[in-house]
Design a protein that fits this description.
about 325 residues, about 50% helix, cell membrane, ABC transporter permease
Length: about 325
């Protein structure tokens, strides 16, 4: 990559523009991926914490946490779900996701559900607070892990409290099973399709991610195509003095690999910094899949684009270096 590296050193501004563009696109993809993951966790973290092998809805053909109602079945745990307003000791109302399990169930944070409620930390309830919900009261027995369901903090209650609050004799909304082959069951990930906002939210965000990846590939192809055309005379001279097509193609692709690596690294590091700043303030998840995979994909797409953009090198006519037609 002797020629490619010398060109980078000589035309810092031009290559800096390419690196900056790649870094910006990488940053956008990283931030959007983190937000997509974070918003997904706000929908599903309580279900993921329960981690059942299978979830059974009333109608397996039309899974819905809103309308499903199930009766108790041996070998399963009935989970009741719903959202409502709860009043704290000071009378202030706030929306909670009411999740119900049978008494004696060990919750994800290690608390054992008894007659009282177990509140997520973000609800800011204290031990022994008495809460009012749907005409009944319940004490807070513990403050547990901060979990969310349908973008709402979770309040765990015994099944009987859920039945009274929602005026139903059903055992729950869905059945949770440790048997992945249970009749009518779907996997945990498939059960997320029953959350009203989850599908539309995730599909919209992932579609935007797809557009960003496509834009990244197109922009890189455009930059490198223009750059290849502009250096046609130089390439013709190199060919005239004996440089092979293979050598020039390898040099150009290697040059692209360096520029893309610098760009995606800068974008990923800035994204990491923004992620640290946003975590806890906005629904942003920091993970290997957020920080490493998007830059790798941008780099891979960029390399594919570089191969396409530099193919014209083989068509450069060395006679143009001697005054012929390029």
């Amino acid at each position: 990559m002797f020629v490619g590296i010398r060109e980078i050193k000589k035309a810092k501004g031009r290559f800096g523009l390419i690196v900056g563009t790649v870094a910006l696109i990488t940053l956008l993809v990283v931030v959007l991926t983190g937000l997509t993951s974070g918003l997904g966790k706000q929908n599903t973290s309580a279900l993921e914490a329960l981690d059942p092998a299978a979830v059974v809805f009333e109608d397996p053909q039309d899974p819905s946490f809103t309308t499903s109602r199930v009766q108790a079945t041996p070998g399963t745990d009935a989970l009741g779900t719903g959202q409502m307003l709860v009043s704290g000791p000071d009378g202030t109302e706030q929306s909670v996701a009411l999740l119900a399990l049978p008494r004696g169930t060990t919750l994800p944070g290690g608390e054992v559900l008894s007659d009282g409620a177990v509140a997520s930390a973000s609800l800011n309830f204290s031990l022994h607070d008495v809460l009012s919900l749907a005409g009944t009261t319940i004490p807070v027995d513990a403050v547990g892990e901060d979990l969310m369901f349908a973008h709402t903090p979770v309040l765990w209650v015994p099944t009987e409290t859920w039945q009274e609050a929602f005026h139903t004799d059903a055992a729950g909304t869905v059945l949770l099973s440790d048997d992945p082959g249970i009749e009518g069951g779907v996997s945990l990930k498939e059960s997320f399709q029953g959350l009203p906002a989850y599908v539309s939210e995730q599909s919209s965000l992932k579609m935007i991610q797809g557009f960003l990846y496509a834009i990244a590939a197109l922009v890189i192809v455009a930059f490198l195509t223009v750059w290849t055309i502009q250096r046609s005379r130089d390439l013709a001279i190199l060919k005239a003095i004996g440089a092979s097509n293979k050598y020039l193609l390898k040099d150009a692709v290697g040059q692209s690999a360096i520029l893309l690596f610098i760009g995606v690294t800068i974008g990923a590091l800035i994204g990491l910094g923004i992620g640290f700043a946003m975590e806890g303030v906005a629904p942003f998840t920091l993970s290997f899949g957020v920080i490493a995979l998007p830059p790798l994909l941008v780099w891979a797409l960029g390399m594919a684009g570089a191969v396409v953009a530099t193919r014209s090198i083989s068509k450069v006519n060395p006679q143009s270096a001697l005054g012929g037609v390029a």
